[in-house]
Amino acid sequence: VRALTLRQGQIGVEQRENGRGNWTFWKADAGSDGESPLTQWKIDELLLEQVELVGRVASGKEDVVWTGQVQKAQCRLSGQKSQWAFGGDVVVKNLTLEAAGERWLDGVQIETDVHGRFLDNDVTVALGGARVGKLDEKTALDAELRMTGGQFGLFLQATRADAVVMRSWWPEWLDRTLGSWVDPLTGVVDVDVAVGDRTLSSGGAQFWPGPEASLWSGEWAVRLKPRALNCVSEGQQMSVQEGAVWFASADRGWFAEAK
Fold this sequence. Notes:
Layout: E1 3-7, E2 10-15, E3 40-57, E4 64-80, E5 83-99, E6 102-119, E7 122-134, E8 137-148, E9 151-162, H1 172-182, E10 185-196, E11 220-233, E12 236-240, E13 245-249, E14 254-258
Parallel strand pairs: 1-3, 2-3
Antiparallel strand pairs: 3-4, 4-5, 5-6, 6-7, 7-8, 8-9, 9-10, 10-11, 11-12, 11-13, 13-14
């Protein structure tokens, strides 16, 4: 298919508890009538305008659920047997992502290059150079969402982010949890977020899989690496340009470590 345009509709993507997804909409195997299977297909240009996006993927502990309104998207799709892949540029408003029992993105706007793959119960979605935030306050970040074998992992990375603006895309519960720690901070900082199974991170220098600390329960972790960070407390100012501090979930509450 050379081009396909969808306007003012709804796209629902779902992976059920048995690992089967609703995205296999073509015949991948020969039927009893002897009809030949469709082994390969592609759409060179898929245009979306004002389309509601809803999705749910069953994971080991908690379902991963997302909603949003695609203002504009220009993508390409291709399929081979039970697998399909996609990539392109998208603008989404009111994007909400719930994972690991918490809401990680809450009504944000995102402009990004996106690509991914759906294969049975193996799902990978990657965002590159995304602009995420609310109103005019946006942070540039990369992200990776992976689900496989009933396990889930979400990894976010923002380089040289404004220490105040970065909180515009944080979930409210996390901002409340860490508020007294990060309220005094201004300046520039690298931010890493890891949620879920650390083994699903692509590794390398791209994404932080989470702390090595034995106290970490594996639910969530946030790392701050100062670039030019200022901390003002009780009239005293301190400038930090290296090191790292991370906050992470524990079996009972959460903990913090620094180096």
